[in-house]
Amino acid sequence: MEHNSENCRSNCPINFVLETFGDKWTLLVVRDLMFKGKKYYGEFLESHEKISTNILAERLQRLEAHGVTSKQKDPDHKSKFIYALTEKGKALLPIMLEITQWSSTYDSLTNTPKTFSEAISADKEGVMKTVMASLDTKNKK
Q: Fewest CB within 10 A of the end CB: N or C in the chain?
């Protein structure tokens, strides 16, 4: 099923994004997949923000239903699932970098490594290529 704005309050692009990602947890799950190398349910639970199990399960299901993530059985551990970003999920990379850069600029307590913020400012395309290559490598394993 295609994920579009048909069942949203309006066809406004901002509204579509908010209805897809507009809570305090969903983009953190995307962040963990994109930048932190997490791929197992238990790894998401270890994040600093301490997401509850029921919220995490619902967000992973929503992201999969919207085609942002995929879920497959781990061939090495049959009782585990591996979560990964789809191409649609990977397409969020420029947005995630913009959010990171904006937050690094305006949050004096940010935990974004200074070298990462500087790299985004100096060579955003290079950072995108590096992160994308990393995501592609992880998905092939």
A: N
Angle in degrees, CA 78, 82, 88, rounded to 5: 150
Determine the Cα–Cα distance for residues 87 and 22; give it in Å rounded to an integer.
20
Q: Identify whether residues 110 and 72 lie together within a single domain.
A: no
In whole angstroms, what is the distance from residue 129 CA to residue 93 CA?
10
List the domain range (segments joined by +) for residue 133. 92-141
| pTM score, whole prediction | 0.86
Average pLDDT over residues 18-37: 90
SS3 call for 72: strand
What is the domain count for the chain?
2
What is the C-alpha separation between 107 and 110, in angstroms, rounded?
A: 5
Same structural domain, 81 and 13: yes
